[in-house]
Amino acid sequence: MNEIRLLFRKDILILINNIKLILRNPLRLLPYAGILAYIFFMYYLRLRDREEDAATQEMPELDLNGIPEVNFSMQNIIGGVTILALGLLIYQLYSATKKNVSFFKMADVNLLFTAPVKPENILIYYMGRSILPSLGGAIIFVMYGASQAIDTFEMTVANFIFLIFAFALFFFIIAPIKFLVYTLNTKYDVMEYIRMGVIALATALAGMIIIPGLMAEKFWQGMFAWISSPWFDFFPIVGWSRGIASYLSHENAIISIGFILIYGVSYFVIMKLVIRFAGYYYEDVLEATKSNEEKLEKVKGKKQVGESSYSLNTKKKLALPDFGVGAKAFYWRNYVHSSRQDFHPLFGLYSLIMVAIGVVLAVLSLFEWFSHYFIYGYLLMMLFIYFFAGIGRANVGDLKKPFFILVPASWASKFWNMIKLDILQIGLFCLALIIPAVLIAGLNWYIIPLFLFATIEIYLVGFGINIIPQIALDEGWDRKLIKPFMIGGIVLFGFIPAFAFSIVAFVVSKQFVWALFGGTFGMFFVAAILMHVTLDVLKRLEFKEV
């Protein structure tokens, strides 16, 4: 107990020193003051609107049997938020099977780990102290969220406190669970079983959405019937936080306090298990602590950010299949690089996030929160992003390397295997995005193939703009001068005619699908010409190098 008291005294002294530093330079508080000013300004605007437009309470509509109709809008909003929380939980559990979590900094490693203090006491103190950043983040998030929803909900002191607990406890409990997972693997080598359990849990949760959706008259009416039901409040972590936050609707403090107590019991059990199985955990957390410190230094600009800075599996042990020989080596090379960048080489985290945003837009448009033009705008934004993804393709310099020239295969085969993985990734992303959006929002079915072809075309156009000057010109200044003229020519003779064709098709038909068809048809010729020029330049590459 004395050791924990000393650790607490150490943090108090650090806090006092930080306050003194702030007092010496109060300008450090300006960003925080700006955030608070913005939040209070939003409070003022929302409260003024609420006073001008007093909300009227509507009674639920009754059917012939006197049973209130289901509020599908509220059901799907609750279900959508729950799914986001479940997705974050599943991702955190899966990431726990990849690397350990650390509660320490390098200063703690250098001083505390060598001090005559019991490892259990250090771990107990720092694990409990980790609630402070979660609590601070929850306060800021709830203050901002309350400023946006103050005209809908009465933000009383009790509402504010329970919302803070709901968010803080959710993010706080994740780190001890991740630490326990890694600890159990260190002692019993059960990582594969835990990973399979996480995948099984994700599959079961997906079934809880798909099954009631298929059973309902319309899929969107039943997809969140189970997830948003009150019994799901007893689902670990996500449901508990939702049960605490539900105080806004039922205003029953006993229920919310009960879920807080469940969190407390769970944390106590997790802490006992960690202490039981962690042992001398110093070596396990050293690598994670050092990795966290390096990330902080990169954020502060002290270190150069490398290509793998945003990779999820940089040190992952890969067991890849044999893709074959010849030009397939280029596909294998890209596959290995992509495997180390994300949790799956064909469909990664960023693709999943963009697909989720598209599905959310489709669901909201279904309830007439806004028109389908928001979805169309999002699809056009995806085309814009993939155009610049093609221009920013980084490894085209490998085309001038001897290994590319000396591989015994045709130039067309080399080029195809070089872009094959990109095409597969784009295809999977487009299908995962556009099929649910079309089904949920009731869009025209022809948008599915048109969006797929348009995205591939626009990526190939950007890729051609990048690759042709890189491999056709030797001098760097020539590439810098030619590339802008090349982009201008493509915009003038490619994009503008295709865009004009799309506008005419939309004006005549009043439908987005025909506008997309016009743009896709026009960009097809641009992409075909650029790919033909690219292949022709590649064929001349060997003669130039020799």
Features:
mainly alpha, 2 domains, 21 helices
Write the layout of secondary structure elements.
Blueprint: H1 2-24, H2 30-52, H3 72-96, H4 106-111, H5 119-129, H6 131-149, H7 157-188, H8 191-215, H9 219-222, H10 238-245, H11 247-250, H12 253-278, H13 282-299, H14 328-341, H15 349-366, H16 373-391, H17 402-406, H18 411-441, H19 447-472, H20 476-509, H21 512-545
Helix pairs in contact: 2-6, 3-7, 3-8, 6-7, 7-10, 7-12, 10-12, 14-18, 15-16, 15-18, 16-19, 18-19, 19-20, 19-21, 20-21
The gist of it:
The chain is an all-alpha fold. It has helices at residues 2-24, 30-52, 72-96, 106-111, 119-129, 131-149, 157-188, 191-215, 219-222, 238-245, 247-250, 253-278, 282-299, 328-341, 349-366, 373-391, 402-406, 411-441, 447-472, 476-509, 512-545.
Please give a structural write-up.
The structure is a single chain. This protein is mainly alpha-helical. It has two domains: 72-297, no CATH class; 327-542, no CATH class. Helix content is 74%, strand content 0%. Helix 6 runs antiparallel to helix 7. The N and C termini lie far apart (76 Å). The model is unreliable at 55-64 and 301-310 (pLDDT under 50).
